[in-house]
Amino acid sequence: MLRNYKLSRLDTLREARSSISVQFMDFIKAVSRHRDILVCFFEGDDEKYFSIRINSILPEIKWTGINCKGKKNVTSLRDKISSHSQYKSSLVAFFIDNDFGDDVIDNEEDFYITPTYAVENFYSNVEAFKNIITAEFGMSEFCSETNDFETAVSIFKDRLNEYCNIMLAFNIWIKSHRIIEKSTDDKSKQLNLNNLKIEDLVSISLTEVTAVYDCGNVSSLFPNSFSVTPEQYADSELYFSQSEKSLEELLRGKQQLEFLRVFLVQLREERSKKVSTVFTRKTLVKLQLSKANVHSELSQYAITPSCLIEYLSKFKCAA
Fold first, then answer.
1. Does the pLDDT value for residue 143 go beyond 70?
2. Which CATH number characterizes residue 96's domain?
3. Total count of domains within the chain
4. CA separation for the pair 109, 6 (Å, rounded)
């Protein structure tokens, strides 16, 4: 059954309500109460990832976060504050996703821009996975009695590689479509990927990841979309093929985090069996792994890139 993933009237109304006036008033309220407070502006719910890192790197600094409901709103607020005579010297930090790297960002030094597609990519990688299974699945890299840790890591690497290869065509097409969206005033065909479910794209198990969507006809997922020409698709494909970064860093983060969540749910089930065909021992895994809370539940295990530490550290001197 085809789903029409486009902006609904409700989405349009939400977008209208997310104008920066609300966030700017929240900012004014914060700095009015605490002159030296650090105000952090996030695209969306990314505070769930950044909060423990800000607290760890800047333990002496009082800060508050503002959900700007979109990347464009973050950049607009930066412009508004930096040009405001009264507030331009305020202590502010701006956090945005790199996405596909197509956006031109003025004054980049004012922003923390993820080196990956998004914050979610900090969760869905081998290093973060090792952190998760060590703390939550009772596995140890240095255990001499069992190879469960190595087994789990090997399985994850294989499934992540399969996932990335399958999702490449989807991401190339989405990148192409986003470029078209930015070149036209026609909003009727703008894609809303928030309603797209992982099961519409891939089937995930511990033994394999297989494609559900038609990799050769991505537009079938989006009946009301712009036509992407072969030339436009080929241009976007170069972004991935010529990058020095891995696919797991370049692909859309939200789907990749959902892949990790589904994989961990299945790993939890296998680890809980009395007799497992994968693991040598049973362990009670307490992770809830709900779709709504996975961002915050796994935050402590996600990687913290050095560029984030560097960006936050500059506020030690500014405070």
1. yes
2. 3.40.50
3. 2
4. 34
Which tens digit of pLDDT belongs to each residue from 288-309? 999 999 999 999 999 999 999 9
Do 218 and 140 share a structural domain?
yes
Which structural domain range is residue 244 located in?
Answer: 124-301
Query: Which pLDDT score, from 0 to 100, does residue 195 have?
Result: 85
Residue type at position 46: D
Only one residue has tokens 């299974």, namely 133
Please name the residues in contact with 309: beta carbons below 8 A apart, sequence gap of 6 or more: 57
Q: Are residues 39 and 25 in the same domain?
A: yes
Q: Give residue 6's pLDDT.
A: 47
What secondary structure does DSSP assign to 172-236, as a single string?
HHHHHHHHHHHT-S--TT-B-GGG--GGGTEEE-SS-EEE-S-TT-GGGG-SSSPPPPHHHHHHH
Of 122, 55, 79, the residue nearest 294 (C-alpha): 122
Question: How confident is the model at residue 5, as a pLDDT?
Answer: 43
Average pLDDT over the chain, rounded to whole?
Answer: 93
Per the listing, tokens 């992407």 go with 228
Give the per-residue pLDDT at 1.
Answer: 33
155: in domain: yes
